[in-house]
Every structure is written in structure tokens, then in C-alpha cells.
Amino acid sequence: MIEYRNLRVALLGAGSVGAQVAALLIEHGQELANRAGAGLELVGVAVRDVNATRSTDIPRELLTTDAESLILGADIVIELMGGLEPARTLILQALNSGADVITGNKALLATHGPELFEAAEQVGAQLYYEAAVAGAIPIIRPLRDSLAGDRIQRILGIVNGTTNFILDRMDRAGESLETALATATELGYAEKSDPSADIEGFDAAQKTAILASLAFHTTVPLDAVYREGITGVTLAQVDAARKAGYVVKLLAICERLTDEQGVEGVSARVYPALVPRDHPLAAVHGAKNAVFIEAEAAGDLMFYGAGAGGIETASAVLGDLVSAARRHVIGGPGVAESTHANLPILPISRVITRYQITLSVVDQPGALAAVAVLFSGHGVSVETLTQSVQLSDSGVSTPSPTATLVIGTHEASEADLAATVLALESSDVVSQVTSVLRVEGS
């Protein structure tokens, strides 16, 4: 029997996720209350337009355009508006009033996270954000709580469903990036007006900053995350990857590295990479997300599921709501974020991995040897090499045929690889450096 007083819940935003949260809270309120140990009263939903069409029906008397008044007196505030403002201001108002806050706003956390966490700590409130990374997949709590006593070495994540859908279509359906993007847009995975947040890697970079901060107990600002999108990925690269036993994925990577003096630091980066087909992440298809963790004691762990979707993400929000309610029932201050390791953020040049470089070279004696000299001269060791000669339309070699070299390297630093590529581009025997892809997860 529930004896604790009802907790007043204010909801900011009624988009695809917010509307589902409201509907589920109304429909399953009693069941959630039984789990939490306190009644959960939805006191209002702040929206821009009370007359707008929504994915679920919300009682009209709950709708309001006055978010600030709604926050007053609330025990728990759920922010699902998105964007930086007025979300930041409203969350700070809620925290300063002593309310716990639940948010799915990855952009806000990646940009203003330290300010918000400090505000929560000052008043003993709690900021919950399971829905900010990978939708329905429980990854925030495992990193913050379950693995807090372990030492995480690396995280490899597929954290953007749109780009995974596009790359998967390129790999399995043979579609070009443009065609796959059109399919993703038609199905609602990509924004019609501007898909750049997804395909340019901005969305994944925001989530990477959050994951790295949690995993390494260090504040990782968004501008410290190295970012490349998938707009440069071609069908030819995807086909070559398949033949070599790889699949191309846009990866969020958080990793412990050392600097030139051997001091430990953090690398946070996003880019398209080659993943071996026997790696668990290679089997993540469609718009699904997955986060693969390499921990010192726990070993390899993988979290897989829906990375987006209104009702799926609402599941994570309601999980946070139950946790927040339980904290009110039990009492005591909120738990502060652990960012006391203060590890330095290392530049991309410190990354060490393997690479696959595709070159177009003049097909003449000595060309291959000249290329090999450039690699060895910059400390990059060649592991594999395949060669093909470009033929004319009639099927015979052109007068000055061009050979395509696909070179796989042993592990090398990003700095050495960059110097090698620069030298290749300046070489008389190299017509073009067609592509450079990193190999991760091997």
C-alpha cells in the first residue's frame, strides 16, 4: 500500500517522446506508483501550441504554454523540449527550486552538462538522463552505477540509427549513399529539411561526449570530440570493405590513451570505420543502436536495442521517473556526477589503430616500390595489399593504365598516417588517394 504523498510531475514538451510519456504515465500511473512507492500526479504539460496535433491524446486541461508556472511546486520535472534554450533556463529553474529533473536532451547535456550537474549538486537534487543516449537502451545507469568500480578501457558505439540504417542499406542492398539517405528520409529516420545532424556526425558526437564523461569520470566537452560524418563514404568503399571481411559503421569511440610523456588521457571521436564482420557490432542492422564496452574486470559487454522512437525512448524516461520517485520516498540528497578523475583530453593525433588506404597509381614499373618507401619512411607498416588495373570500356588496358591499390596497415598513429597520406598525395606515382578508413574492433 502506498503511504507516501503524491509526487507532482511536470512535463515540458509533447513531441513524439513527450506525448508518449504523458500517455503512458496516465495509462499506467497506478502500476508505476506501486513500483515507486509514491503516487505520480501529472500536473501539466508545457507546449508551444495547445491546439497542435499530437501522436497521442493528452487531456486538454493538462496543456499549458506557461512552462515557468508549471515548474513551480513540481517535485519532478521531465524536459523533452529539445534544443539549448529555453530548455537550459527551465532546467536550471527546476533544479534551483529543488526538483529532480529528467531529460533526454543530448545536445544540452553535451554543451552545458557541467553547469547543470553543479546546479543539481548545490541543492541536493538529481539530474537523470538515461534517454539522452541510445534511446531505450539502458547504458547511462550501467556506466554510472554498475561499472563505477571497474576500469573501462574503451567504448565502441553505434549511437545514431539514421546513419546505421544508411550504411546498412549500402552494404546489404547495394544502394548509394544518396539513395539510402532518400530511403531513410522517406521512412522518417532522417530529417527532410536538414539531415546534417545525423549524417555529419553531430548527433553521435554529442552522445560520445556524454559517454566519455561517464566512462572516464572526466568532463569531456563537445568541442573536444573529433568528428567525421558519413557523407564521404562511397559504395565502392563499402564494396571493398565487404570483400576484405569488413562492414562500414559510424562509430562513437571513447578510449583511454597515453600522451607523448606516457600520461594517461582520454580520446573521444566519431568517424566511419571498418569493423570486422565477426565483431558483434557488425551484426547491428537497420536503425538499431548498440554500445560495446571493454572493461578491465568485467570484460566485454554489449548493450543493443532501439536507439530512437517515441514509445521506445519513453521507456527510458519512465525508468528515470520511477528512480526519481524512489529517491523522494527514501530521502537524502541526489548523487553527484563523478568527474573527479580530470584526465586530459588527447587530440586525434594520439590515436593508434589500423587503416585501409585506397590509392590510384600510375601502372608502371617501380610505382609499387615507391609507394612502399613512402609508407616505411613515415613509420607505417603495410600488412596487406591488393592491386587491380583499370581497363578501358573495351576490356583492354588503356595506353597509360591506372592501378588501384588497397593497402591495409599494421597499427600506426594517426599522426604518422596523416604524414603518410600527405606524402602520397604529393608523389608523382600516385594519381589520387581515393579513401582512408580506420579499422576498429579487431
Structural features, described:
Helix content is 35%, strand content 27%. With 442 residues, it is of the alpha/beta class. The strands form 2 sheets. Strands 7, 8, 9, 10, 11, 12, 13, 14, 15, 16 and 17 form an 11-stranded mixed beta sheet that branches. It has a 6-stranded parallel beta sheet with strand order 3-2-1-4-5-6, sandwiched between helices. A hairpin with a 3-residue loop joins strand 11 (288-295) and strand 12. Helix 4 runs parallel beside helix 5. It is elongated and about 85 Å long. The mean pLDDT is 93.
What keywords describe this structure?
eleven-stranded mixed beta sheet, 14 helices, alpha/beta, 17 strands, six-stranded parallel beta sheet, 442 residues, 35% helix
Q: Briefly, what is this?
A:
With 442 residues, the chain is an alpha/beta fold.
Outline the fold blueprint.
Elements: E1 4-12, H1 16-27, H2 29-36, E2 38-46, E3 63-64, H3 67-71, E4 76-79, H4 87-96, E5 100-103, H5 106-123, E6 127-128, H6 140-146, E7 152-158, H7 161-172, H8 177-186, H9 196-199, H10 202-216, E8 226-227, H11 235-243, E9 246-258, E10 264-276, E11 288-295, E12 299-306, H12 310-330, E13 352-362, H13 367-377, E14 382-389, E15 402-409, E16 412-413, H14 414-426, E17 430-439
Parallel strand pairs: 1-2, 1-4, 2-3, 4-5, 5-6, 8-10, 10-17
Antiparallel strand pairs: 7-9, 7-11, 9-10, 11-12, 13-15, 13-16, 13-17, 14-15
